[in-house]
Amino acid sequence: MTVSDTIAAISTPPGEGAIALVRISGENAIQVADKIFRGKKQPSQFASHVQHLGQIVGAENQLIDQAVLSVHRAPASYTGEDLVEISCHGGTLVSAKVLDACLRAGARAARPGEFTERAFLSGKMDLTQAEAVIDLIRARTDLALRSATEQLEGRLGDQIRKIRDQLIALLAHINASIDFPEEDIEPDENETLCARLDTVRNGITELLATADQGRVLREGVRVVIYGATNAGKSSLLNGLLGYDRVIVSDTHGTTRDTIEETVNLDGVPIRLLDTAGLRASDSELEREGIARTQKSLQLADLRLHIADRNVAKPAHFNGVASDLGELVVLNKSDLPEHNDWKDSPALRISCTTGDGLPQLKQEILARIHQQNLRPENTIAINTRHRDCLRRALESCDRGRAALREGLSGEYVAVDLDQAMAAVGEVIGVVDVEQILDSVFSQFCIGK
Ligand SMILES: Nc1nc2c(ncn2[C@@H]2O[C@H](COP(=O)(O)OP(=O)(O)OP(=O)(O)O)[C@@H](O)[C@H]2O)c(=O)[nH]1
Ligand SMILES: [Mg+2]
Fold this sequence. Notes:
Structural class: alpha/beta
CATH topology of the largest domain: Rossmann fold
CATH architecture of the largest domain: 3-Layer(aba) Sandwich
Shape: flat
Strand order of the largest sheet: 3-4-5-6-2-1-7
Mean pLDDT: 89
CATH class of the largest domain: Alpha Beta
Bound molecules: guanosine-5'-triphosphate, magnesium ion
């Protein structure tokens, strides 16, 4: 795949800053630079990767800015194409004018992610690495950052390639036994083939098991705070965040909407949701809020059921957690305890004094750990990888069943072929040539 047009974009975020970076990539990138740069030498005469000071000019040679320009010749650039970087002054208007000059000189405005897409298309990185670039930019915790860096270095891609190679070798065996039965190629015993297929399946299953951790690394654990009105849900959100994010008041039904904020608990990103308090209400607005509470509870990884221990147990709550995904927390431990809570083993906290909050944080982390949501391994797949790998696993399972039933090699080959394609999608390769190569090199056919 080749892309020929030349793209340009402002690569730094909008707004004022010390410098802004404008990048141009593609066949004519250096030609475009020649048209807009005035200095001792022309960019086309620059050595690769060396910065030169000069002026950027627009229409009718009008000076836009003094800037530093460097040329990165293909293939030794981020995109693998000729790439030009212009560091200009960081004003919104300045960078926009520099970009405009690039566009006038023949470049086209780049789409989001297009520089990285070109890096992928020119074989600089596989798809998992391209995705890691986004993860790296979005990482909110050290662990998420480390995971993204390792993915960018190709660790996930390597594992996928290993699985894919195993499938290619298996397919080679099976195809050979189909195509050249007279060639005296002893196909592996069914048992051996099954065992090899099981190795592939295990590899896929292990990667699939990291999907939840991957979601946590990229999006955070969803922790929903819920309970009766006035229990102190909003106070708890503020307490865990460390600042006054939401309105707290002794009026019942203060919070009407769900409010989400992210906190970093010991390296684990937590998406905390404060919700509208549960009670029977005549107000349509409040009922809509409560419906939202119910909806977010369904998507929660962990539910914090908060109750005011100073008052009687609410009618809707029997006082105990319904499962491992729920933690009961009794708030207002600075106030006397109502008799209803006397025998409750639940954690006591006070959002007013901060008592019990450190223990609550520990408890939240422990639960996340128990549910295997805490990212330990830095290889963690995303939802796209998960979808591909699930399809691959299904195809492997069908292939295995066909082998077990003693069906002809053609059937098994179709399934393994689909598995290989699905695995290949993860890294962005779909290639039949490789299987042919593998067949012929293994079996020395063509004598
Ligand atoms: N004494 C005491 N008061 C608290 C504590 N936590 C919260 N409060 C008070 O309880 C009242 C309700 O607190 P909120 O955080 O608004 O309660 P909520 O659960 O969000 O209430 P709704 O949004 O109405 O459902 C406020 O007056 C808080 O100041 C606590 O630990 N001790
Ligand atoms: Mg509230």
